[in-house]
Structure formats: structure tokens, C-alpha cells
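Reopening this ticket.

The earlier resolution said the output was attached, but the attachment link was broken on my side. Pasting everything inline this time so it's all in one place.
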Amino acid sequence: MISVDRQLETLCRGIVDLHVRAELEDRLRSGKRLRVKVGFDPTRPDLHLGHTVLMQKMRQFQDFGHEVVFVVGDFTAMVGDPTGRNELRPRLTREEVLAAAQTYQDQAFKVLDRDKTVVRYNSEWLGKLTPHEMIELGAKYTVARMLERDDFSKRYQENRPIFVHEFFYPLLQAYDSVELENDVEIGGTDQLFNLLVGRDLMPRYGKLAQIVMTTPILEGTDARLEGGKVVGAKMSKSSNNYVGINEPPFEMLQKLMLVDDQVVWRFMDLLSARSNDEIAALRAEVVAGTRGVVDVKEAFAKEIVARFHCEADAEAAIARRKSVAAGGLPDRIDEVTVDAGAGVGLFLGKAIFLAGLAASASEGARLVKGGAVHVDGEPIKNDKHELAKGQRYLVRVGSKNRQFKYVTVG
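Inline output:
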């Protein structure tokens, strides 16, 4: 049996909000197998590493022998979560929700232990609530408390419409906890209000209040450290700063190697399976100059690639990366954005000219045809080869006097 102190250290790592730590410790010390609930509204089919921060915390509970209930919000997704919204969220059809739910689960089980995960659909109980029971549910919370939410209060002050069914979303999510009688509920920091509604509601139905834990929203691969704080937009496909968990191993590795040297520690805190002590030891080695940060980033990237693919794929991705240039890549590679104008992409020769890797577009085309240009480790000899708009590439020009740049086509 893993000690309670060890469980607390691991489970609380990276947690932002915890209501209440003393309660969590008491329930762990009781020896009880905790029931941990996490709800997902399957509104997006593709997951990236930002989504897995929460799933990684679920997996830690599983590894300590606790029960994880994966709640598919097929009922609540059709209501629409108003969190962070300044207007009504479009409502989904049941068919859209169920299709996304299947894809979501297929990807989620790359992190979770399928054999230790209980999957429940909240339509099982929410779809059976009678009109009388729905009114009773609404009677257990006040409009004043609902208006404490930032999104609701902002819309109210700006005279933007708030629809009655939107008030029911946090209540219905909270009722999931009443039905499941879980000990803990985990969500992202943006879900804190909804999770606390569950904590408030459970005792009103004669249930023991759940413990609430929130995980951070992971920044994208372009985040930077400013004033000792990690700043940047959250990881998202629309911001093109994401690492998709279904991406090929080499692309996944390359994107993780783009993470800023000072920001990689946050990624490790939230995503790595290494202990706090192991990460601290690595950081101390880097500070002391006995280990390079690039080596640490590569080891972390390899861990993540192996998690979503396999060890052999991770090793192959590392080998391919090192083969891009004999002796590996430089510790620092400049980044540049080139303008594709109204087109959907740029010819490679013109792109390397705009990136400052060739004297002219025609010189760039000549270098391409001569086999002197590699893109993401692959030699390109077709001078009509295009770099797609919105994508980032590792471009190498030359053989002996190699020049490297990360080129984003904007």
C-alpha cells in the first residue's frame, strides 16, 4: 500500500484549487477506496496535451488504487456549458455528441487504464428526472449565487441575454455527483464554479460533500517566461501551438523540442510521470551546468511520445531528429514567420528566401533542386514543393555550413 503522504504529494502536484486538503487527507487515511469523478462534454473530437493534464491526474488516482468514473456528458453537452461564454453556446444534436464521445474515449484511454475506468453517460439519470424533480433541483440554488459566475455577471451587466436553461448546466453537472456519490471531482480551473456547485448541492441531498480539485490550463508550445511567470495563450488547435496526441511521433517530438527552455519545467510538472524529486534533481543539474537543458527536453519529449505511441517509435523519432544534421541540432534555432499573402502556401524556394536562408527566390529554387534543403528532416528536391499556410517547419539549408530556422507560413 502506498503511503498517504506519498499519495498526497503526487495527487496535489500541479493542483491549483483544492477544497479541502484536510478532507482529502482524512479520506485517504481512512483507507477507503475513493471514487473520483471527472465529467467530459464531448464537444471536440481531437485531443491535445492540454486536455491530458486532467487525465494524467485521473491516472494517478487509478495507480493508487482508487476508482475513476469517466462521466460522458451526453445530456449536459446538449444543454451547453456556458463557462467562459459571452453569448449562448450553440446546442449540439445527440448524434453529434455520441460520435464525438466515442472518439474522445478512444483517445482518452491512451492515458487512462481502461480496465480501471468506469464509464457512465449522464443521460442515464438526468434523462429520467421528472418535471417535479427538476423544479426541486432548481429550488436548491439561488439566482444570486449563479450571477457570481464571471460569465453570467458580465453578460448581465452588459444586458446580454442569459437563457434560463443555462442556469441549469452547473446544477445538472452537480447532480451527477449526487447520483454517483463520489468523494472527489476534478476539473480544469475554468470549471471551479461548476465543481463547487456540486460540493454545495450534495449535502442538500443528504450526501457527503465532494472534495474539489482543479488542474491548470496548459499554455501552448509558444509560451514564454516573463517576470518569473509563464505567459502565453492556452494550448489550442486554433492558435497552432498544440501537440495533438494522435500526431505522428516525429512531429510530436519536434513540437515538444520547440518549448522554451524555461517553460519546459512547467510542462514536466503537469505532464511527466517523474516524481517531484526527480524533476528537481534534473533542474539542479541544469543550473549547475552538469546537464544541458536540451538533453532534458529530449528526454521529456521521448517520454511523452512513448506514452502515446510506443518506446520504439520514440527511439526512432529521436534518431530521425539527430539525423537531420550530423551531431544533432543546434541548441538555439531562430524562428521566423513568412507571409504567404492570399495564397494557401509558398514555394519552398521563395520561403527560404523570405526566411533569410537564400539571397533570392531563384537562388532558393536552385538550392532546392540541388538537394541542399531539408524540411523536417526530409530532403526536398522539387522546386515546386509548397509549405502550407498556418504550419511550422524545421528548415535546413546546406550540408557542411548548415543553417537552420523554424519557418512558420503566415
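Reporter confirms the inline version is readable. The first strand starts at residue 17 and ends at 19. The chain has three domains: 4-215, 224-323, 334-409.
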